[in-house]
């Protein structure tokens, strides 16, 4: 306001000169009209003082009384969605004029309710406290330049210059008529709660505000005498314009208790926005109590709802597609609607089939197809159902575990089960057993025994179910694209949603296989079975063993060398058990015994070989990317402060997609060169072991699992860019360039 | 393998372009709502056809004093003049319930500007964008993502000698591949006179 003083003054002079020319009047009057609407002035303004004479050093009140034509209104200090606040600039030599006081405003809505504004109909007196200086003598000249927008359906601006004199005398003499007007206006001006014996408390339902997301809370008003006006009229709360808050409102729950609802802006600044506005208790019958509230809300957490679309996708236009979806989909909570999340979960599940960690299962299935192709369609259907059932069952089990763990107050995420060494060991054992089965150490059901003359469908189905279970178990450490969003949504949602999302995931995972089985033409195109199948089967066994080796390494990360050794010993036992089971199964098992012995020998040898390794601690593992530092919010903030772009790699040992990205993209020469060139601070957030901080960070960005890649620019530290879950070197380099700032040639 | 990866990357793109549903119009950083509107001559314009260019949308109403003030000093025309015509498209939108193509044509003639005035008398596009005031400005980047929403400048009262033109700042930033410094500002002006 004060910064405008000089330009206001210039305007004042201009207006003075103009009005002098127009009216040939040397001085503005205490009354003026404005907002000429086709010759009809819609506003009359009068400069009022509550004293007819003032003593030097005394205080008085000075104000402008606005009188509008019926239906016309002026605006409050926060005009709302449209309009312009009324501005009164004082010019009073020898007088200090305080802040303008605003009586509690009315709220106006456009007929469709879309545009809400705040202001005054009929009339209002905007006033300020003033004080005559100790040296004042003679006549004080008080001038006010009024700049107001007056609206009905049309808006007409008004610029009025008002002036009057106030004699200085030995005593201050109040003017009864205007004092009544000032008193009436003052009664409507909201006051600080303390000044009225009230206390206002605010409790938010969450620790922080999340950018672009709604927030809720409770506001309680209590009075020292215990008497809080219990009723309110509509529009009893009007927020001021608060940076970072797009909308905020209160609803009455019970006397003195209000529910706060608001939306944080997507680009809300980090500093704490405040709960600021005016609150009017009471009704016309009970009388009003207007309070000015100003309380801290909470600090803001930046949340990216979804990563930005990848650049340079030639034929496909994500923005247009998203915009299309946007017009069709109903609004959901937390940025994604359930329907959309289900679609993403389904697609994500389907894509899981192509992920590296599902490879062994896919291989197994490929083998299964050829086997299936030989069976008649009915059995194939049963198998498909069994496989799907196995997948869905396991998914639901996972969902149940998620819910249970969440109920226990732990933070969980996609792939969380791989943070539990026991679980990994169990998966390992299953893999080894499966491999042994493929080597023919033992058989599941009747498969592969010469004795069975008939295909026993039911036992075959059990196998399919088992494969379904295995598919899920192995798939989980890979957070496929899209699934991150869908699962992230599920993890933050209610139990029903969690179950629905996991079911959709399972259906997606089972889809390709089921399609192959159920579409008649497809299975015919698979190669004919023969001796090669036996060989292929055995070969797949080695693939499974390879996966087991990776899991052993994961356990190493979780439980160190001793843990690995224990696991391997356990695996040997598994092998032994499988072998014994095989012996029991078949009488003429001599050749099998030799094989089992060989397998066990290989296992033991591998175990012995691995045991000679030093257990690679997670910290050392981070060295796959040069100069990586362990992720830490403080260190990130420090790097940003120093003007460095920041790259954060959220990873885990058991996440193959993460490893794939690290090996093939993040360690590439050109990517490393870009990091060096732009002095990128590279952080690794290792989620191999359970880490609530990392889980929380993932959740902030709507993810439930790794990988997640954040690129933060020092110029916009509160707006990290989230990269897709499958990286390409171009993508990383471009993101880093964007974050580093000025680019010579915009891509 | 490479093809598989490309396909995956594509799907990933699909997967990550999750729109967040703003209850109150368009949101900066998100794809701008798609639209197809006829201008005052009856020619259709859609947001999609301008993909690859920066699009400036200006909510206008010739009856509003704020709009009148800006046209009196050619704020919009001068802002547009400062841009590379090959890279930037300017579209005015009128969501006033009682506006007609003829009125827009007359306004255009009177103020001697060349960009189209899109006719949105039913207010659908205005509501999709959450346009509240005239003028209310939106800047959409080449990829169709909304990058600025708010006032034309920082001078609601028209009294600054050197107002900061937010739209110019935003477009210049986008052309130079930089982030828009202030992605949202409080729009000022008359309320959009939507049909009720």
UniProtKB/TrEMBL annotation, chain B:
Domain Thioredoxin per the UniProt entry, residue ranges: 26-176
Entry-linked InterPro entries: AhpC/TSA, PRX-like1, Thioredoxin-like_sf, Thioredoxin_domain
Domain of life: Bacteria
Key words of the record: Signal
Chain segments annotated as transmembrane: none
Keyword Transmembrane helix in annotation: no
Keyword Signal among record annotations: yes
A GO term, aspect molecular function: antioxidant activity
Signal peptide: 1-22
CDD domains listed in its UniProt record: PRX_like1
One Pfam family named in its UniProt record: AhpC-TSA
SUPFAM superfamilies tied to this protein: Thioredoxin-like (SSF52833)
Protein name as it appears in the record: PPO candidate 1
Natural source organism: Hyalangium minutum
